[in-house]
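Lab manual, section 2.4: Encoding a predicted structure.

Procedure: take the sequence of the chain (417 residues), apply the prediction step described in section 2.3, and record the output as structure tokens. A sample record is shown.
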Amino acid sequence: MNDKYISVNQLTRYIKYKIDNDINLNEVFLRGEISNFKAHSRGHFYFTLKDEKSRISAIMFSSSTKNIKFVPQDGMKVLVTGKISVFETTGNYQIYVNEMLEDGVGNLYIAYEQLKKKLDEEGLFKTDHKKPIPKIPNRVGVVTAPTGAAIKDIISTIKRRWPLCEILLFPALVQGELAHETIVEQIKNADNYNLDTLIVGRGGGSIEDLWPFNEEDVARAIYNCNTPIISAVGHEVDFTIADFVADLRAPTPTGAAEMAVPQKNEVISLINQINIRLNKALINKININKKHLEEIKKHYIFTNPISIYQAKEMNYDSILERLKYSLTNLIHVKEKNYQRVTSSIILQNPEILFDKKKNKYINILSKLETLSPLKTLQRGYSITKKDNKVITSIKNIKKGDNIKIEFNDGNINAKVI
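Recorded output:
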């Protein structure tokens, strides 16, 4: 009765047999966009080929990848040639690619490059705008999905490295059409919580999954945030616009947690080293001061303190003697001056000074009388004036001028004819 049931492996093998023997699937030519691209260390390429409605898993072995003339990236549109088959372990059908040609860059990649160029020209990527990440934070915020590996890794890493740090989660959508809006909202919200550092990110995924962190409003929210931000989006090979704008880029969420907080043992070791250096510096300072104190104690002032008084006493005596000498000398000089003045002939016979002054006065008066114009008039001369000005030349008057002639005993008015 149970003979009609077959195993899953038998079914998968039958489907694989059917597909492998379908001539139409042995050589397929597909056009699509690369997504979730990964290059294996052995040289194989694993990726998804998609269009607007469907997607198919693809693998290209190293024997074929060495013939490719370009570096495949997420978002590239390509032309592939390959064979459709089934991977028995998972039961998924996929294309085994033999050839791949570049068919232009996908729309998401174009949008990414355009926005990256625009924001770079505006200066959002400049290093002089980036804020330093505090070395020993008290509070770290995280903007990410409330569930998933990213938040778990961040929390466990911070608690292990620096358990004194408080972690605040600001839950946000990190995938889908509305994700960028919630990320922006939570970045602005976290900026009000006096955080030392803010981690913004999510785990790995395809370019579509990571796209919210390539949105312009998310980039500007990161740029305008006053709190230092560490971007932790995807894996080490994934670069988003958020990575370029953030103050620091981490390769993974775990890496962001390691950058956000110090290692507890390293801090303890640093504190111990500082403590040792401080103790050495303190002991050295004490020894220097002790030595200085001993030198001071040996100074003659302390060994013979009365010498200070004696020196001052001698200085006082010297100053007192100089003052006495100066005073005596000053009195002597003044006495000599007084004697010289009192013995002066002027004070002995002041009439002599009066006679000298009188004779000098009479002599000056005689000279004034000799030069006086009145004396000239008394000798028969006259003075002719015009407009109260003395006429010294006939050239100074003309016919019809009124003149005044002064004599010793009067004056007359005349007119030139």
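Check your result against the sample. The two ends are 180 Å apart (CA to CA).
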